[in-house]
Design brief:
The protein is of the alpha/beta class and about 325 residues long. Helix content is about 50%, strand content about 10%. Strand 7, helix 12 and strand 8 form a beta-alpha-beta unit. Helix 1 crosses helix 6. The two termini are about 25 Å apart.
Length: about 325
């Protein structure tokens, strides 16, 4: 157990204290851990010349790693604190690291570490993301709650990004049906307020909520992290649904990113009296329209669930491109 905690501390050291880019961190992971079969404990115990010879690191990068090495004790203490708080770590080489996420992101985008609380088996379900504006109108919020509730009732995992507006409505809709939902944080997992944590905890304990963060546990919310989080939200889903988007901003970027990830994108289509320019622009870019309001939600959503089910069966076994880490998902088979 102690050895495992030391290894986790070294992952935190490399990911959050080295100052290296995600691309370089993942290059080190591939070369040192995957190809050589050695641990990061062994990596940080090695001489700088070994780092240079093995991972082909520049002098500047080696200096950063040497500086980071002095902070190992602090990272070990952090791992112990997280374990005490029932927050767990998932490293990119772990068997349970989501394959779909690896196959969705380039190597420079793939989080080396994910922090989570809850049951990872929720990610084994068919997963649909609902995204939208923090300042969405009441009709968009009603759409989101109804969609999330229906999907959760059908056994799907509804994934959202833990912001006000559409994200909050998606969470409320899924949990009102006592269904499963994944909440991907735009900040560190320890930056949840006491009120937020207590509200989530009971549902985490019953197995209905999975909480995820790719950021240092104490990282504050900033716009850039929210944008990074969006790639994980859409990367974990078979299908992405847009409730309300402007023609710029986080939802717009997230929806376009979903299209780049080859995700089927479904967009709420409002009636002419309540036109949503951002939604219409996404439909013109390749999104498919979802009529709202509708008298028969099952008729509208059944084709999505069927499509998502088909993709769910296929996507776990699709290897990614050479610039991705997805091939590592098959390394132990």
């Amino acid at each position: 157990m102690e050895q495992n905690l030391q290894e986790q501390a070294c992952w935190l050291l490399l990911t959050y204290e080295s100052g290296l880019s995600t691309r370089i961190i993942n290059d080190i992971v591939v070369t040192w851990c995957h190809q050589r079969g050695q641990t990061l404990v062994e990596f940080f115990a090695a001489e700088p010349q070994v780092w240079s010879d093995t991972c082909h690191l520049s002098t500047a990068l080696i200096e950063k790693l040497e500086k980071a090495r002095s902070k190992l004790a602090g990272q070990a203490f952090l791992v112990e604190q997280l374990s005490h708080d029932h927050i767990q770590l998932l490293m990119v080489l772990d068997d349970n690291y989501p394959r779909l996420l690896k196959s969705s992101l380039k190597r420079e985008q793939t989080p080396p570490v994910l922090f989570y609380a809850g049951d990872l088996q929720i990610l084994k379900r068919q997963t649909l993301a609902i995204i939208g504006s923090r300042n969405a109108g009441e009709e968009s919020l009603a759409f989101t709650r109804a969609i999330a509730q229906y999907l959760a009732e059908q056994g799907a995992n509804v994934i959202s990004g833990n912001a006000r507006g559409v994200d909050r409505a998606a969470y409320e809709g899924a949990t009102s049906a006592e269904g499963c939902t994944t909440v991907v944080l735009p900040h560190g997992i320890r930056k949840l307020s006491g009120v937020q944590w207590r509200a989530l905890l009971s549902k985490i304990q019953t197995g209905n909520v999975l909480l995820l963060s790719q950021f240092h546990p104490d990282a504050q919310w900033v716009v850039s992290r929210a944008m990074e989080r969006n790639k994980v939200v859409t990367g974990l889903a078979q299908i992405v649904i847009v409730a309300e988007s402007g023609v710029q901003g986080g939802t717009w970027a997230g929806a376009k990113g979903a299209l780049q990830q080859k995700r089927p994108l479904y967009v709420r289509q409002a009636d002419a009296a309540a036109a949503l320019p951002g939604n219409q622009a996404l439909i013109e870019l390749g999104g498919q329209s979802l009529p709202w309001p509708t008298e028969n939600l099952a008729e509208v959503l059944s084709p999505l669930l069927q499509e998502g089910s088909t993709l769910h069966q296929k996507q776990d076994n699709i290897p990614g491109r050479a610039d991705q880490l997805s091939f590592l998902a098959f390394s132990n088979e």
